[in-house]
Amino acid sequence: MFQKVIHQLENSQSTLYSEESCRIFLMQAYQELTLMRIKYSQNQVISEQISEILDRFFAVEEDALEAYDNIHHLVYRDVRDEVQTLIDFIKNKDIQLV
C-alpha cells in the first residue's frame, strides 16, 4: 500500500547530497501520503496509520532541511539513517494492514 511512498523516500536517501533532488523526492512522498489520507479518510485504522507516518515524516523532513545548513557530512549520515528508520516503520505499518 505504501510502495510509492517508500520508493520516493529511498530516492531521497540516494540523492541526499543534492538538495534540489532530495527535496523533490520528499515532496512527492508527502503528496502521496496526503492523497492516501484523503482516499482512506473513511477508514479509521488506515487513516490513523497515515497520520502516524506523516508525524514521523515531518520530523525527518525538518532534519533533512537543517542538514543543508550544515556542511558536516555526519549530519547527512544521520538523516539517511532517519529516512531508513522511517522506511522500516512504514514497511511495518504496511504489513500490519495486510
Summarize the structure.
The protein has 98 residues and is an all-alpha fold. Helix content is 84%, strand content 0%.
In terms of topology, how is this protein built?
Elements: H1 3-14, H2 19-39, H3 44-67, H4 73-97
Distance between the termini: 9 Å
Percentage of residues in strands? under 5%
- Structural category is mainly alpha
**Largest pleated sheet:** none
How large, in whole angstroms, is the Cα Rg?
Answer: 13 Å
Number of strands: 0
Number of H/I helices: 4
Helix content: over 70%
Low-pLDDT segments = none
H-E string: HHHH
Question: Can you tell me about this structure?
Answer:
This protein is about 85% helix and about 0% strand. The chain has about 100 residues and is mostly helical. The protein starts with a helix and ends with a helix. The relative contact order is 0.18. The mean pLDDT is about 85.
Which key terms come to mind for this protein?
mainly alpha; 4 helices; single chain; 98 residues
